[in-house]
Amino acid sequence: MIVTKFNGISFLQFPNLISFPDLGHGVFTRCGGFSKEPYMSLNVSHGVGDDSDVVEQNRAVVSMCMDGNELIFARQVHDTGVVIISDNVASQPGIHTGDAMISNIGNKMLVIKVADCQSVLIYDPVKKVAANVHSGWRGSIKNVIGCTVMSMQERFDCSPSDLVAGISPSLGPCCAEFINYEREIPEKFRKYRINSDHFDFWRMSEDQLRSAGLRESNIYSSKICTKCNTTLFFSYRGEKNTGRFASVIGLKRNSWKGQKK
Ligand SMILES: [Zn+2]
Question: What residues have their beta carbon closer than 5 A to ion ligand 1?
Answer without folding.
Answer: 172, 174-175, 225, 227-228
